[in-house]
Every structure is written in structure tokens, then in C-alpha cells.
Design brief:
Layout: E1 2-5, E2 35-41, E3 46-54, E4 59-64, E5 67-71, E6 79-84, E7 87-92, E8 95-102, E9 106-110, E10 113-116, E11 119-121, E12 127-129, H1 132-141, E13 155-158, E14 161-165, E15 171-173, H2 176-182, H3 187-197, H4 204-215
Length: 217
């Protein structure tokens, strides 16, 4: 069962390591399984845990004594950095974001997604999909939203957003079109790279490489 719970500072878990993939997983969890990580507090205290990130609830999740729990206050407000394998997550606008670039140009992404339920019977033999918003309470009450794998007839719709600061303050980016607008003076380079590399907006590694490439000149 899923519960809101504060991560206790003395917590120590023994875990195995899995390697992160660049490929976009069709899952509402960022990692295919709970993965070794650590939570660094603002006072410098560091705690090891089995961690994952739920893109539907937008919570950092951990396992403790056979239970699946969400990182919550008072621990949440005291958290500085979460690391899972070689990936770094911080709180930004009260949400966990992954740090993709952190030098002169800064880029972060917040992983979000929607659950699309199976089609319901409709007139004339068709199907209609019920809104994920309308059924969210059902998933939560039945704890489905906290399962690592949903039934095969459910679909996941990624809806990531990015935060970019390339020297003029933070900008929130919701689409490839918005990102392109930021680099409107390099429109041809932008279009060329996206076309040749087949960059998808919900691929954070690809977006980071695109931004780095555009910032070189």
C-alpha cells in the first residue's frame, strides 16, 4: 500500500544497481524498477534508499520495510538533492526535476505523464477513451497508480516540461515550438539538428544534446 511518509534520516537499505537506459520507457515510472540512490539533506546528511520517480503523481518514491512510500514533509522541505545512479534531481517550484545541464547553460526537466485507460464500448461498435483526469481517483484508490507496471490495455502519455536558463533567466518550456522560439535566431540549425537526429520533445537526453549544440555558436 502507498502512504505519504517522511524518509527517516537513520534509514539504511542494502540494494542492487541497475543501469539507466536512454530509451524512453513506456511507463509512468522513470526507472523500470526501484533503484539504488541517495537523499542529501540541506544539512549535509545523506541517506541511502531504493528510489524511483512516479511521473503521474510527480512524487519521489522509496521502499521501506516492504512498503512503497512518497518523500514528503517534513523531510521533503529539508531535501537538497536526490541521486539515482548517476542522475541528479532537485526541487524546483516544489517539484522534483532532473538536472540535465548545469554549466553556463542550465537545463532541467520535470517528468510528467497521463494514464489513458482502455477504450469503453461506444455506439456502432466503436470505442471511446475515458479521460485520465476523470479516472485518476480510481487509480489512486485502487493503488494502480503506484504499481510499476500497468495492465497492457492502459497507455501512458508523456507530458514532460523543461526549464532553461541560457543567460537570461529561467524559462518554462512546454513544447518543441516554444524551445524553437527561444532559438529563433538559429532556426535553420535548430530544424537541421532536430530532423537529422530525430529529436523527440519527451527525450530529455536528446533535448539536452540539442541545447548544447545550439549554444556552441
Amino acid at each position: 500500500m502507498m502512504n505519504k511518509y517522511s524518509l527517516l534520516i537513520p534509514l539504511l537499505l542494502f540494494v542492487t544497481v541497475t543501469k539507466a537506459q536512454r530509451t524512453i520507457e513506456l511507463s509512468h515510472y522513470l526507472f523500470p524498477e526501484f533503484t539504488k540512490g541517495s537523499v542529501m539533506m540541506k544539512d549535509g546528511t545523506e541517506t541511502s534508499a531504493m528510489l524511483n520517480y512516479n511521473a503521474v503523481t510527480r512524487e519521489m518514491i522509496f521502499q521501506q520495510n516492504g512498503r512503497v512510500l512518497a518523500l514528503a514533509d517534513p523531510t521533503l522541505s529539508l531535501t537538497d538533492t536526490v541521486r539515482i545512479e548517476d542522475r541528479k534531481f532537485v526541487l524546483f517550484d516544489d517539484e522534483f526535476v532532473e538536472v540535465l545541464l548545469q554549466e553556463d547553460t542550465k537545463l532541467m526537466t520535470c517528468y510528467r505523464c497521463k494514464i489513458i485507460p482502455p477504450g469503453n464500448p461506444a455506439p456502432f461498435g466503436g470505442t471511446s477513451q475515458t479521460s485520465s483526469v476523470d479516472n485518476y481517483s480510481t487509480y489512486r484508490s485502487g493503488n494502480m497508480v503506484y504499481e510499476l507496471k500497468l495492465p497492457d490495455d492502459y497507455k501512458i502519455e508523456p507530458n514532460n516540461i523543461y526549464y532553461l536558463d541560457n543567460g537570461s533567466g529561467w524559462k518554462k518550456i512546454n513544447s518543441m515550438r516554444q524551445l524553437k522560439k527561444i532559438y529563433k535566431k538559429k532556426k535553420e540549425r535548430f530544424d537541421q539538428y532536430v530532423s537529422e537526429q530525430k529529436i523527440q520533445f519527451n527525450d530529455p537526453v536528446g533535448i539536452a544534446e540539442l541545447v548544447e549544440w545550439l549554444e556552441r555558436e
